[in-house]
Amino acid sequence: MDLATFITTHETTIRLSCFLGILLLVALWELVAPRRTLRISKAVRWANNLGLVFLNSIMLRQLFPAAAVGVAVWAQDNGWGLFNLLELPFAASLILGLLLMDLAIYAQHVLFHHIPVLWRLHRVHHVDLDYDVTTGARFHPIEIILSMLIKFALICVLGVVPLTVILFELILNGAAMFNHGNIRLPNALDRYLRLVLVTPDMHRVHHSIQMDETNSNFGFNLPWWDRLFGTYKAQPDAGQEGMQIGVKGFDNPKETQWLPGMLWVPFRRKG
Question: What stretches pass through the bilayer (predicted)?
Answer without folding.
Answer: 12-32, 53-76, 88-112, 148-172
